[in-house]
Every structure is written in structure tokens, then in C-alpha cells.
Write a structure and sequence with these properties.
287 residues, Rossmann fold, two-stranded antiparallel ribbon, 9 strands, globular
Amino acid sequence: MHPENIHNESYDFDTLSKAHNELKKFVILNNHQTKSIDFSNPEAVLHLNKALLKHHYKITDWNLPDNYLCPPIPGRVDYIHVLNDLLTSDEILKDIKGLDIGVGANCIYPILGSQIYNWEMVGADIDQVAVKSAQSNVKLTKNLAKNIEIRLQNDNANIFQGVIKDKEYYHFTMCNPPFHSSKEEATKGTLRKLKSLHDSESLELNFGGQSNELWCNGGEALFIKRMIKQSVQFKTQVGWFTTLASKKENLPKLIKQLDKLKTTHHVIKMSQGNKKSRIIAWKFNEY
């Protein structure tokens, strides 16, 4: 993980349970006789997230509607620190404003950006339930409202248009795009994850995530291609455009598209345990 990530060490379940008492009932001894939780149990993961947010990030409370994505906090923190590195390299150190595309019901990136670096954040989503949940999560902690605004994207065809207002400027945009190209592909991926957690052939499918969170036509590659294409229209209003890119086989075509647009771009590798990912970041040189 990023060297600034406070989650580089194992979870201290005793301390976390003190921060959020409801976590206690989900703490178990694993095969190594150390304290853990059943990471295939959505309720256990939800309460672990609540404990992490309360203990480390001074969040009063945090909730999710049923069947919405419950994000792993450590990996999300890594993305925030990578963005800070990008901004620091440009000597942008204060009064930073960022935009999270696809903020989700969890609102996790704006919350972390606000609490770690005191960034001003806008989060946008096409899902009305997600928008209302994100707004609710902001209201639950008193000091978040001064830094975070949540907006509804009314047009599925647009990524930035309809969200970025005239004369607004963002030092960065960020995105965790839909990974899969279909519901079937998403289901198979989830079953693989559950089998790796339980090492069992008979598993009940149980995961969070709405369709727009998990898949879209063309999957991750097509979504990011659209994002790159549409970023041109907002090149004077954004410093760094960034997005997660989970599938490295998609990189060559995306880099070719960025080269064609004569952008400055980076591919920044990230790793959390066995999970490998990367962030693609680009900016338009004349701006």
C-alpha cells in the first residue's frame, strides 16, 4: 500500500470494537488463531467499515441501503494518497477541490478526501437512491457538510456534462468505474471472490452492488474510453482527470487514445494484498 496509508498494518479488532461496539459480535478467531471477521458476510464488512470510519476518520455514523456496494476502506485510502502525490508534484498544496464520478451510496471518496486532507469534494451519481444515501452520510457527521456536495447526474450518456458547472474548476476528478460488461460476468466474478474466501464449492451468492455500480455495456474499457473522450470538453476546468483501471489488458488502447489527444499521462500501480489495480491519470498540457 501507499506509505502514508494507515491501514498497512493488520486490523486491531479490540480498538475498532471500542470505536463501534456492534463490530464485536462479528469478530472471530480465524485458522491462524488471530482475530478477524468473515469477509464474505456483508453485515460483518459493513460494521468493520463503520468501525474504521469512526476510529480513524472521526465519522459519527455511516450507513448503506440494502444491496449497495460496501467498499474496502484501505484501497480507497490508497487512491486518495495517490491523488495527493499528483497534486503535490504540481505544487498544489491547499484549497483543493475534487470531483468523484460515481460517488455511490457509500460516499467514501469524498468522506476520506475531506477527513484526511480537508479537500472540498463534489460527488456525482446517476442513481437517485445512491445520491440520497450519500447526502445522508454527509449529514451524519457535522463537519462534512462544509466540504462535501452531492449532485445527481440526470443523463446517463454524460460523465462530466451536467455535473461540472460553468466557471467551476476542479484540481482533479476521480472514478471507480463499473468493472464488468454484464450481470453474468459480475456474478461469476463475485463467486470467484467468495470461493477464495471460503475455499468451498457450494456457496450462496451474496453480494452488494447495483447494476450501475457493477457493470455497464462494454465494461470498464468502454467507460474509460468515453471518459477520456468527454474530458476534452472540460480540459480548462480540470487539472488531473483520473480513474481506476482494474484490467491491465485494457491499458494499451487507453494509452493510445491519450497519446492521440497529446495529454500528459501516468499509470500508477496499486496493490492491496492479492488485489492488483492501477490509476490512469491524464491532463491537457496547455492547461
